[in-house]
C-alpha cells in the first residue's frame, strides 16, 4: 500500500485547491494555454509525416505538456476546486513513477516494463474489447477468444449489454450486479482457456464508483488484476473517481489510468492533442498515482484514433513521455472497422506500428467499430494487433513512418462509413471458438500485404 | 457614418474571431446607422455563423473558436433585441433546444460540440450540462417551452435514462409536445428508433440536419 501516504496529500489538495468555474477552466486554463504552448514550443504537424522522427520536437512537446500540467492542474467537478502542483513537485513525483511491474499469478504472471522509442523489446499485448458493449450471451465466448490467444499477455473486459437479461443502470443496484457478473463471466472464460492466473483489466462495467467498490473485494477482482481509473476530458476528475482511487489504494490494487483527449475539442488539433495528452498523462500520475498510463485520442466525428492527424499525435506524445519519464504507456487501438473487414486490420496496423516505435509499454485492444456495434469484436484482431507490435519492435521511426504512410490511404476514405463487418457469432465458429475461414482468409491476406510493405511478421 | 457593407465586414470579422466586445460595439454602430436588426441577422450574422459551422465540420477550426463565435453572436443579439418591436420573437431562433448528457455520464465535450453547432446554426440552446436526471430534462423543456429535447450518452449503462425520458413523455401525454433526439458513442439509429426517439445524429453536423428536419415536420 505504498500510495497510502500520497493519497492523503491528494485528498487534501482536492479540498483546498483554488475554486475555479468550469467554463473558466475549459477556456482559460485549458484551451488558451494549449493554444499558447503549441505556438511557443513550436509544435507542428506537417500533414505528411505520420510518425514523428524529430527528438527535439518530442522534448519540446514534453516541456509544453509539463507547463500545461502545472498551469491547469486537474479540476474536481464535484466541488469546483483545482488540484494543483508546482513544477518541482511534479518533477520530483514523476521521476519515481513505476517503470516495471508483475501482473497476474502463477505461470500466467507477466512482467511489464517501460520501453523507449525504437526499443527492440516487444510491448505487452493486452487483448480485449474495452468499451465495447457485448450481448450477455456472447460475453463469455468473446472474452475466451481473446484469452486463448498465446500472444495476449493480459486481458481487458468488454461491457455487458444486460445483466441477467435486465438493463444495467448507472448508480443503481443493477450496477453492483453487473460488476459482479463481469467478474464471474471473465473468470469462467479464463478457466475455460486454461489461464486462470491471467491478469484482468477491470472493472469495465464501473461507469460510476459503485461496481468498482463492490466487485473489487473478496471473491471478486484481485489485487493482481489491474484496475481502471479514468480522467474526464479534459483534465477533470470528480468524487466518484476519487472514491474509486481511495478504495483501490486501500485494497493495494494495481492502478491503471486512461486519458482520452478529444480531437477538435478544447485542445484543438493534432498539435494541441499531443500537448494535452502529455499533460494528462503527467497529471494521471499526480492525481491517481497510476502504475500504467493509457491514451486513446478520439476523433469527434469518427470516434476512432486511426485518423492520420491522430496517429501523429499519438506518436509525438508517446515519444515526449517515453524520452522524459519512466512511465509505462499504452495506446488503445480503436478502429472504425469491425471483424471480417480489411479496414479493421489496416487501422490496427497503423496504430500499433506508430505506438510501438514510439516506445509504448503496452498495446491495448482492439476496440473494433470504436465500440459502437454490439458484439462486433473478436480475439483475432488482438492477435493481429500484438503481432504488429512484436514485428515493429526495434524498427526505426523513419521506416515505420514510410510504412504507415502507405497503410493509411487503404482505409482513410472509409473512416466516416462505419464498416462494422460481422458480429462475433458470424466471424467465429461458436463450437470450436475459432475464426471462420472467411475471417482467417482476410487476416492472412492483409498480413501478406503488409509484409510486402515492410512489416516483418515473425 | 459607416456604410452597411463596412458594418457587415466589421461585425462578421468580430463574430468569426470570437471578439464579443467588438461585435457588440459594431452592433451599436449598426443601430445608430439605422440598420434594421432583422437585416443584421439575415445578412451578416446568419451567413457568418453558417461559415463557422462549416469550418468546424471540416475541422479547420475547433470547439473553442466555435464557442467564442457563438458567444460573440449572442453579444450582438443582446444589443439588437431591445430594438426589436414588442411582441416579436427572438431574432435568431430556429427553434429552442434543451440539451444535456444523461444521468450517470459525465462526458460532455461531444455534447458541447453539438450544442455549439446548433447555436451557430441559429438554434436557441439551453445546455443543462452533464449527469442530467430525466426529470431535469423534462422540467427544463416545460419551463423553457422547448421544441426539442436532445440527449447524449457515451455509456451503455446510462442509456436507460434516455428511455426514461421517452417513457415519461408517453405516460404524461406530452409525446407530441417535444421532439426528442439522441446521440453519443453507443447510440445507433436502430436503437433510437427502437426506443421511440424522433431523431438520431451520429455527430454534431448531423444533429443540426436532424433538428432542422424535426422542426420542419411540425
Question: How are the secondary structure elements laid out?
Answer:
The complex is a heterodimer of chains A (458) and B (218).
Chain A: H1 4-16, H2 22-40, H3 55-72, E1 74-76, E2 81-83, H4 87-94, E3 100-103, E4 110-113, E5 124-127, E6 133-134, H5 136-147, E7 154-156, E8 159-160, H6 173-192, E9 200-202, H7 210-215, E10 226-231, E11 236-237, H8 239-250, E12 254-259, H9 270-288, E13 292-295, H10 308-324, E14 328-332, H11 342-357, E15 362-365, H12 379-392, H13 397-407, H14 424-427, E16 428-429, E17 434-435, H15 437-453
Parallel strand pairs in A: 1-11, 5-7, 5-15, 6-8, 7-9, 9-10, 10-12, 12-13, 13-14, 14-15
Antiparallel strand pairs in A: 1-2, 3-4, 16-17
Helix pairs in contact in A: 2-3, 2-9, 3-9, 3-10, 5-6, 5-12, 9-10, 10-11, 11-12, 11-13, 11-15
Chain B: H1 4-16, H2 20-32, H3 37-57, H4 63-80, E1 96-101, H5 109-120, E2 124-127, H6 134-143, E3 148-152, H7 159-171, E4 179-183, H8 189-195, E5 199-200, H9 204-217
Parallel strand pairs in B: 1-2, 1-3, 3-4, 4-5
Distance between the termini of chain A: 40 Å
- Tell the overall outline of chain A: globular
How many strands, which pairing sense, and closed or not: the largest β-sheet of chain B? 5 strands, parallel
Please report the distance between the alpha carbons of the first and last residues of chain B: 43 Å
Number of helices in the DSSP assignment of chain A: 15
Structural commentary:
The complex is a heterodimer of chains A (458) and B (218). Chain A is an alpha/beta fold and 458 residues long. Chain A is built from 15 helices and 17 strands. Chain A has helices at residues 4-16, 22-40, 55-72, 87-94, 136-147, 173-192, 210-215, 239-250, 270-288, 308-324, 342-357, 379-392, 397-407, 424-427, 437-453, and strands at residues 74-76, 81-83, 100-103, 110-113, 124-127, 133-134, 154-156, 159-160, 200-202, 226-231, 236-237, 254-259, 292-295, 328-332, 362-365, 428-429, 434-435. Chain A has an 8-stranded parallel β-barrel with strand order 5-7-9-10-12-13-14-15, surrounded by 6 helices. In chain A, strand 13 (292-295), helix 10 (308-324) and strand 14 form a beta-alpha-beta unit. The longest helix of chain A has 20 residues, at 173-192. Chain A is globular. The mean pLDDT of chain A is 96. Chain B is an alpha/beta fold and 218 residues long. In chain B, 56% of the residues lie in helices and 10% in strands. In chain B, strands 2-1-3-4-5 form a 5-stranded parallel β-sheet, with helices on both faces. Chain B is elongated, with a radius of gyration of 18 Å. In chain B, helix 4 crosses helix 5. Chain B is built from 9 helices and 5 strands. In chain B, helix 5 (109-120) links the parallel strand 1 (96-101) and strand 2. The mean pLDDT of chain B is 90. Chains A and B meet through helix 2 of A and helix 4, helix 5 and helix 7 of B.
